[in-house]
Fold:
Amino acid sequence: MKRGSRGNPAEAWIQAFPAFAATLGDSPERQAQRERALAAFGELGLPSTRLEAWRSTNLRTLEKRMPPAPTGHPPEAALLERAKTQIALEADRVGKASLRAVFIDGHFCPSLSTLPEGESGVRLLSIRPESATPVSFPEGYGELASAKLDAFSALNEAFTPGIEVLEFGEGCELDLPVHLIFLSSGDGRLNCPRLHITGKKQSRATLILDFLSVPDGENLVSSVTEIFLEERARLDCVVVERESDRTVHIANLQTRQGRDSELLIHTLTLGGALVRNELGAELADLGAELDLKGLYVGLGDQHLDNHTRVDHATPRTTSREIYKGILAENARGVFRGLIHVRPDAQKIDSTQSNMNLLLSPGARVDTRPQLEIYADDVKCSHGSTVGKLDEEALFYLRSRGLSRTQARALLTRGFVAEICEGLPLESLRSAMTELVLEKLSACAHPDEEGLA
Amino acid sequence: MLDIQNLHASAGDTPIIKGIDLHIGAGEIHAIMGPNGSGKSTLSNILAGRPGYSVTEGEINYGGKNLLAMEPETRAREGVFLAFQYPVEIPGVGNSYFLKTSVNAIRTHNGLDELDAMDFLALCEEKMKRVEMPNDLMSRSINEGFSGGEKKRNEVLQMLLLEPKLCILDETDSGLDIDALRVVADGVNSLRSPERAMLVITHYQRLLDYIVPDRIHVLADGKIVRSGGRELAGELEEKGYGWIGKAE
Amino acid sequence: MTSENADLKRLAEEDYKYGFVSDIEADQLPPGLSEEVVRLISAKKEEPDWLLAYRLKALARFREMLAENGEPGWANIDYPAIDYQAISYYSAPKAQVELEGLDEVDPELLRTYEKLGISLQEQKRLSGVKIAVDAVFDSVSVATTFRSELEKQGIIFCSFSEAVKSHPELIRKYLGSVVPYSDNLFACLNAAVFSDGSFAYIPKGVRCPMELSTYFRINSSGTGQFERTLIVADEGASVSYLEGCTAPMRDENQLHAAVVELIALDDASIKYSTVQNWYPGDKNGVGGIYNFVTKRGACRGKRSKISWTQVETGSAITWKYPSCILQGDDSVGEFYSVAMTNNMQQADTGTKMIHIGRNTKSTIISKGISCGRSQQSYRGLVKINPKAEGARNYSQCDSLLLGDKCGAHTFPYLEVENPSATVEHEATTSKIGEEQIFYCLQRGLSEEDAISIIVNGFCKEVLRELPMEFAVEAQNLLSISLEGSVG
Ligand SMILES: Nc1ncnc2c1ncn2[C@@H]1O[C@H](COP(=O)(O)OP(=O)(O)O)[C@@H](O)[C@H]1O
Ligand SMILES: [Mg+2]
Structure:
C-alpha cells in the first residue's frame, strides 16, 4: 500500500465491476483498459489527508457510506420524463445553443438533446458500444487525467459508461454556445461522466458544462474532462456546479494548450455537500494564454475545495487567475493554487489571486497560493485575502439610506461582479449573479452591532 | 432643526468631543472651522451615525426626534446627508446602480413611488451637468479610481439627487482647484432653501467666499471656543488658529 | 543572466571569510548516539535527575520518530539521510574549567573570536556600543561578558548549563514549554543531546540596557552543534537579542539542530535577530552546515510582542521557521526575513503565526534572493483560531532571481476560522530589473555595485529592523554572498 492512502474501502466497487462491465458489452481492448484502471485505483486507494494535496479535504464521510457502483444501464423512460422540466429550465437560463446535450448519470440522452443539423463545425460523438457510428479513440485520451497516477481518474476510466468526444472543427466560429448538461439521477450510485474536448486550429467557441442533480438526490460524481486546444484556438468554458446538498463531486478538469491558443475557464461552485475541483492547465506552447476565474459560495455544511495547478511548460506563456469565495454558516472553503514555471520557461507572466469573505462565526477557509519557479525571466505574483464585508463601505451605503440587508447584498454583488461580469453570455451573467444572491439571501446574517 | 446639547463622545477610550452645544434652525447655514484634529470629522460622523464612536454624554435632537437612537440608514432617509471627507472606494459596485438604490430607498421611506431606470437616468443627467461630472463616472464602481476632485463632485451629485434636509459637508473643499470649488459651491447654493439646514465644515476661509454662512463656530480640542458672524472667518484667515486658545 | 558581467564574475571568487579552523584542544566524545552518550553529557554538566530524565524521554521519542517516519519529508529540500551514529554529540575546548574571568580563557579561543570580529574583552566594545556576548564554541559556552553590569538590574544572562545550576526553577518551568521535546525530529534530538546555549531572564518592568547576544562557532570536525536558547521576558520587560554563527570550511556536512524558545509575559517584548552565516559548502555543494533549527516564541501575556528578524546567507541546507504563538490578547508577532542562497544551497524557511488571543496581530515580510543553482522556498502558516476575534495578519513575500538555474518557491498556508479576522498575503517573484541596473550604470555605478544596491534596496524593509551593529554586518554579508552569482 502506498504511503498516504488508506486501506481500500472501495473493495465493493472492485467486486461490482464485472457485473457492470458485462452490461456494457465493450470491445476486449476497452474492457482491458478499464481493468487496468481499476487495478490502478485499487493501488492508489482514496486519498487521505496525509497527502499534501488533500490536507484540507477529508473523504472519510465518503468511506463510511460508499455509494454502490453504477449498473451500466441507461436511464429509464420514467426518469427521462421527470428530468424534462428541469432540463427545460436550465436550457432557458442559458438561451439558444448551437448544441445542447444532456447526460444522465453519464449516459447520453438523445431524447433530451438537440444536436445541430448539417455542417456547423461542432461534433459530439460517443465512444460506447451502442453508438451508431463508432469513432476511433480520441487523440491524447488519458494523457492529462492519468489513470495511473490519479485515483479518481482511474475510477472514472473504469466506471464511465462511455467517452463523450466533443470537437470544434478547424476554423469554426460558433455564434451560439455549446451547452452540456450532466444530471445526476440521485440513485445514490457512483457516477462517472467522461468528456474529451478538442478545439482544432483557429476554432472559436463558448462551452457551458452544467453539473446538476435531481433535487435532494444523493450522488457521488467523479467527472473527468480533458481539453486540448490547438494552435490559435479559443475556448471560453463555463463550469457550473449546482448539485444537491447530498452530492459529493470530485471534478477533474485537465487542459493542454497549443501555440497562441486562448483558454478561459470560469468555475462556479454553488451546490454540493463536498465539491473538489481539480483543475490542471498545461501551457504547452509559445504564446498560450490562460484565464481562470472561480467563484465558490458555501452555506450550511458545504465543503468547497478548489485546487488549481497552472503549468508554464514553455516560454512566453501567460496566465491570470482569480478565485473568490463566500463562506457562511458552517461552510468551509479551500483554495490551493499552484503556479509552476519549468526550467527555461522564460518570459512568463502569471498572476493569481484568491479572495474570501467569511460571513458567519462558523465559516472557515484555508487558502494556499503557491509559486514554484525554476526560471528567472518571469513576472509572477499571487495574493490571498480573507476578511469580512468592509465596514467602511457598509456605513457609506447606509448613510445613503440603504438598509443593512441592501448594503450587504450590494457589497456582495460587488464582490462577485468581477467573476460574474466576466462570463461570456449576457444570459449567464444575470442568471449567475441572481443565483448567487438568491443563495446568500437564504443565509442568516448574525446581526452586527448597530450604533454604539 | 438640529439641536446638539452638551455632546461628549469618544473613539475607543479616547475622549474627542468634549462638550458641544449647537443649534441650527431651518434655512440656516452654519460653518465649523478649526485646526486639524480638533474633532470636526468626528462630529459629522456622529451625526451620520458611524459605528465606532460612543456618545458618553449629551443629546442630539433632529426635527423633534432623538437622532442618536436612529440607525444610520434611517437618518439618511430622514434627510441627514454627510458629504464625506474621504469617500470610500467600493470596487465592483456600479455607481449608478448604487445611486438608484439609494434614491429609491429614500423615496420609499417618504411614501413616494420608486423611480424607474429611465426617470432615474434623466434625473441623473440633469444633476450631473450641474456638477460638471463626466458620464463615464456613473458606469464605474463607486469612487474607484476617481481623482480627489471627482470623489468630491460625486458626493455633491449625491446630495443634489437625494435633496436632504440637513446637509453636512466635511471639508468638501479641500484639495479642489478653484474651478472645482466653484462647481461644488454652486451645487450647494442651489440647495439653499428655507426648509433646509446646512453644516459646512472647512479648514479654510476660502469656501466661505462662495457659501456665505449665517454663523461660524470655531472648534478646538473638541469644544466650540468661539462663535460669531461671517466676520469671524476673516479674522481667522488673518491670525490663524493660534490665537484662539489665548483669546479664551 | 547575460554575459556582460565578467567583471563581477572575476570579483566573485572570494572565499568564505570565516572558514579557518582554530587549533584548540578539544574534549570530544566519540561519534554515536545512545543512552550512554546522553547520560555522559548530562553527567559532564552535573545536571539534576529531572533534566536527565527529560533528555532520555526525548531520546526515546527521537528513535521512535526516526523509525516511524524518518526525516521530515515535506520541505522542499534534498539531502542524503543523516547518519546519526556518525556524529559526535559533545565537543568542548579542553581548558575550560570553571573560569573565573576572561583572563583564564584560552588565548587561542579569544583570538578566534577576535578574528570573527567579536570581542570578548569588555573594554573593546564594538563600535562603541555595549553588547553583552555569550560565546558558544562547539558544544559549550566559553564566556559571557557584561554579566555583573546586567546583574545589577536583576537580569540573568549566562550559559544554559550554568542556568540549570543557578536557576533550576526557571529552567524547569520554561524548558520545553514552547517547543515540546516531541515537536519534530530535530527538536527531539536537541532535547536529548543539547550541550549548551544561552539563557536570559529579564525581570518585571526592566528594559534590558544593552543588546544581548550569542555567537555560535562550530570548530571541531565530525561534531554537531545542538544548542538551546531560552529567553524569558517577565511582565513589562523588554530585550533585544542577537545571534550570529560561523563555522570552518570542511568538506563534510555538519549538523546544527538548535532549539530557541522565547516567552513574553504581559506587556513584554522580545526582539530576536539572527545573522546566520554558517559555512554554505563550496561551489559544487560539497560540505556545509545542515541548519535544522526550531525557533518559536510564545506571546503568553496581554499586549506582548515577539519579533524575529533574520538574515540567512549561510548553511548548505536551511530548514527553519521562527514562529509566534499569539496567546495573549492584543499580542503582536513579527517575522522579517532575508534569505540569500547561492551555488548549491537549499533553503526552506518561513514562519508560523498562530493567532489564539483576541485582536492579535502579525506581520510577515520575507525577501528571498536566489542565485547560482540554489533552491529556495518560503513556507509559512497563518492560522486564525475560532476564538481569535479581530485578528489581523499581513504577509508580503518577494523573491528575486539572479540567474536562470536557480529556483524560488512560495508556499503560504492561510487557515482562517474566525470571520472577524483580516488576513492578507501578497507575493511576487521576478528577475532583478535590467532597467534598474541600467539606470545605475548610466549614473556611473559598476555593475556589481548596482546589483548590490538593488538587492539591498529589495531587502530594506527587513534590514532596517536589525540593530545598527548587525545591519552593517548583514549588508556586507549580502554583498559577499552575491558575488559569483551573476555571469
Ligand atoms: N476612530 C478613532 N479612533 C481613535 N482616535 C480617533 C478616531 N477618530 C478620530 N480620532 C482622533 O480624534 C481627533 C479628532 O479627529 P477628527 O475628528 O478627524 O479631526 P478633524 O476632522 O478636525 O481634523 C484626532 O486626534 C484623531 O486622531
Ligand atoms: Mg476631518
Notes: Confidence is low (pLDDT under 50) at residues 1-7, 446-452 of chain A. The first strand of chain A starts at residue 99 and ends at 104.
